[in-house]
Amino acid sequence: MDEEKQLNKLHIAKKVLKYIRRYRLWVILSLALAVLTVVSTLYIPILTGDAVDLIIGKGNVDIAGVMAVITRIAIVMCLTALFQWLMNTCNNHITFNVIRDLREDAFGNIERLPLSYLDMHQSGDLVSRIIADADTFADGLLMGFTQLFTGVLTIFGTLVFMFITNPVISLVVVCITPVSFLVAKFIAEHTYSMFKEQAVVRGEQTALIDEVINNQKVVKAFSKEEDMKNTFSKINERLKSCSLKAIFYSSLVNPCTRFVNSLVYAGVGISGAYFAIKGVISVGQLSMFLSYANQYTKPFNEISGVITELQNALVCAGRILELVEKEPEEPDSEDARVLTGAAGNVELSNVEFSYVPEKPLIRNFNLKVTPGQRIAIVGPTGCGKTTVINLLMRFYDVKSGKICVEGTDIRGITRRSLRTNYGMVLQEVWLRSGTVRDNIRMGKPDASDEDVINAAKAVHAHGFIKRLPKGYDTVIGEDGGSLSQGQKQLLCIARVMLALPPMLILDEATSSIDIMTEKRIQEAFHKLMKGRTSFVVAHRLSTIKESDVILVMKDGNIIEQGSHESLLEKGGFYAELYNSQWETA
After folding, report:
1. pTM for this predicted structure
2. Per-residue DSSP letters for 498-565?
3. What is the pLDDT of residues 1-36, one digit of tens each?
4. Which residues pair with 405 in a beta bridge?
5. Do residue 242 and residue 381 come from a single domain?
6. For a disulfide at 40, which of 80, 139, 323, 548, Cβ 3.0-4.6 Å?
7. 24-27 contacts: CB < 8 A, separation 24 or more?
8. Same domain for 264 and 363?
9. Residues 6+ apart with CB under 8 A from 561
């Protein structure tokens, strides 16, 4: 298991390095500045030692020499500050460019992922990966660049300077050093799994918050506020528990490294004092060694902290990279046809499909549609009506059989061109943040204002739009703001009316609209559907009486097919459904 963790961390680190490699020139510049920073920092104790040696005794001080050394120290300190500022600027540039690239790749891959993946993952968790995990990774990466480079260079640079001055005292430092590595290794091993659990639970929490906020009306309608609070409290408690464990081990860094620092400082002080008494080194050199002892041990504090943060950063990077590397939906074939000017010929031959392999849904589905036909699909909930729509739009691919448009298997047509030839209005409306005009124009960005208004008038949306504070320029939120469900659905219908595609899919398109408005919209739909192949999913059977063909589905199969009148005459399942609606009414 430990070996598997190490391999996983190594894999993530390699992937991260690929992103960093894009900015190799900045990394080289950062390393060069880190070297200059460390060298200038380590040169100051030498100058300080020289100044101490110029203070020979009471009344015997080389004032001119001390002032010259102080001047040099001031110049070196200014240069050190400049090098450090430039290095931090480089590190910030690298870090935030890497995070930007990661976020863009993650979001871009979401657009390419199959709907099956998105259906099986909570949207809040995906949001948490791109936002919270990316921020945590940025913090760890920035700390790595800022402190890891300079820390390692400081350790090796200090040892070089110390060995040049006195190898014996330097050996004392080297002998105590392994204790720091053991401490760092112990902390690193225990924090990775805990930070991983913390990231997962945080994703669950974000997902719950996202769901509850987006569905607050439903929560309140069913008086589930306390249940949601309890669920949130349980997740919050789990997050607290795993966070405390992670923080406990990461908080061991400071006291443990301080203990090691004290050992190093004591070792240098005792051995240095001995050599100073023997006359091997001067008092100024002893002060230099003590200063180096502090400089040598300080990076171990920082590196231990960096290692802890890097564990957390690697966990978060792994969650983002999992999203980046997730296999996208099968790309269009190289010889895929671009569908243009479709007439509306659609044919389904022996189609079989299931979301879960062991639970077949659609079996041996056959249908031939000629241009301009209106096909209504009815049946009980869960019979596969919406699934047929998903297959027609190629949101999912059939398991066997084929669906052809204009005589070509849709798997041989580019998805973009296929979907462009369909106009789709769903029961679940989707509006984006922007003006009313922008939302209607979504399917046809180059449409004129006059075209937008005519489309809105055609679906009887113009009246309520003009009553909005700024009419067509009114800005609405992603959920439609204060618009009613019916008004939001009218905007979605106007969107399709403006695009005028050759084929239409209406999935409960008027479910949230009052009866009077629905009658007017049905008239608009009749005009829109004239000469266009249309697939209409409806529960209100009164709205599909004039369809050319009505498909009655049950358990994934077409059990009846025909016109409204012919199906009523048969007295079968459709007649039973139709009559039950009137009885209910």
Report:
1. 0.63
2. HH--SEEEEESTTTTS-HHHHHHHHHHHHHHHTTSEEEEE-S-GGGGTT-SEEEEEETTEEEEEE-HH
3. 444 455 477 778 788 888 888 888 988 898 888 888
4. 346, 408
5. no
6. 80
7. 26/90, 26/93, 26/94, 27/90, 27/94
8. no
9. 549, 550, 551, 552
* pLDDT tens-place string over residues 292-338: 777 776 776 666 667 667 777 877 888 888 888 888 777 888 888 88
Q: Which residue, 325, 353, 377, sits at the end of a domain?
A: 325
Q: Which two tokens stand for residue 416?
A: 């973009």
The DSSP result for 348-369, as a single string, is EEEEEE-SBTTB--EEEEEEEE
Residues 196 and 231 in one domain: yes
For 516, counting Cβ atoms within 10 Å of its Cβ (0-12 exposed, 13-18 middle, 19+ buried), the class is exposed
**Residue 181: other Cβ atoms inside 10 A:** 13
CATH for 205 = 1.20.1560.10
Question: Taking the alpha carbons of 457, 541, 420, 340 in that order, is the dihedral positive or negative?
Answer: negative
State the DSSP string of 520-536: HHHHHHHHHHTTSEEEE
Pick from 560, 219, 507: nearest CA to 389 = 507
CA distances in angstroms from 94 to 25, 130, 153, 318, listed in the order given: 10, 18, 19, 19
Same domain, 361 and 320: no
SS (H, E, C) 24-79: HHHHHHHHHHHHHHHHHHHHHHHHHHHHHHCEEECCEECHHHHHHHHHHHHHHHHH
What residues form DSSP beta bridges with 351? 365
β 475-476/434-435 pair status: antiparallel
Q: Are 398 and 572 in contact (CB under 8 A)?
A: no
Q: How many helices (H) and strands (E) would you count in the chain?
A: 21, 14
